From TrEMBL:
<dbReference type="GO" id="GO:0005801">
    <property type="term" value="C:cis-Golgi network"/>
</dbReference>
<dbReference type="InterPro" id="IPR002109">
    <property type="entry name" value="Glutaredoxin"/>
</dbReference>
<feature type="transmembrane region" description="Helical">
    <location>
        <begin position="25"/>
        <end position="43"/>
    </location>
</feature>
<dbReference type="Pfam" id="PF00462">
    <property type="entry name" value="Glutaredoxin"/>
</dbReference>
<keyword id="KW-0472">Membrane</keyword>
<protein>
    <recommendedName>
        <fullName>Glutaredoxin domain-containing protein</fullName>
    </recommendedName>
</protein>
<keyword id="KW-0812">Transmembrane</keyword>
<dbReference type="GO" id="GO:0034599">
    <property type="term" value="P:cellular response to oxidative stress"/>
</dbReference>
<dbReference type="InterPro" id="IPR014025">
    <property type="entry name" value="Glutaredoxin_subgr"/>
</dbReference>
<dbReference type="GO" id="GO:0000324">
    <property type="term" value="C:fungal-type vacuole"/>
</dbReference>
<dbReference type="GO" id="GO:0015038">
    <property type="term" value="F:glutathione disulfide oxidoreductase activity"/>
</dbReference>
<feature type="domain" description="Glutaredoxin">
    <location>
        <begin position="133"/>
        <end position="196"/>
    </location>
</feature>
<dbReference type="InterPro" id="IPR036249">
    <property type="entry name" value="Thioredoxin-like_sf"/>
</dbReference>
<keyword id="KW-1133">Transmembrane helix</keyword>
<dbReference type="GO" id="GO:0005796">
    <property type="term" value="C:Golgi lumen"/>
</dbReference>
Amino acid sequence: MATQYFKDNKGHPKPIGGPVRRRRVLLCGVLALGLLFFFFVPWELPPSLKDAGLPGISRANVAQLMKTKGKKVEVGEIYGLLHLVTGDHEQEHVLSNALQLDPTVPIELSVYAAGDAVDWAQEQALIDKEYPVIVFSKTYCPYSKRAKELLAAYDIQPPPKIVEVDIRDDGNVIKHLLTRLTKHSTFPNVLLRGHSIGGSDNLQQLHENKTLTKLLEEAGATPRASGPK
């Protein structure tokens, strides 16, 4: 293809897309070679940089980071309920004041926030850290009492968060929510990091099978005892 020319302001012929175009082509070529090297040529950090505290950076890690950057973290509705019962608004019993609230269908997290601005991804992480074990209980229920005594014998740190549903005026709403969200409709309802492991009988079975300690540890709770003797 013949080179095309134009005349500058002095009437001298100049090739179209001269030095500027060549620089752009050269820059694109360098970037393409860099990407090829990054993704197709094995590499790791030199030992000096690894010793400086960057052992986790590699081609695979950076590529994964590029894929996940900006990806929205989906927070389940259960954390809306847990935010309500573990936060400063516990005594306000917000759910009992929500008009036309149907607990048998999904509810927006904003309802649980009661008008507050909540970063739900951060809130989920905070709840899992501070309250890895949450027990929905009833004060008069013998099964709830049995479960609470069993957990107390493990001397868990941080200690379980106990939510006495029957002394809340939104207790009936919470019961319906737990039934829908955890598929467990009776009390107690024991949650580890937002997941129900069942009630008193389930807890007792886990204790007898000597698997409860492991489950608690995996949830981020530290048992300082091995349960009742």
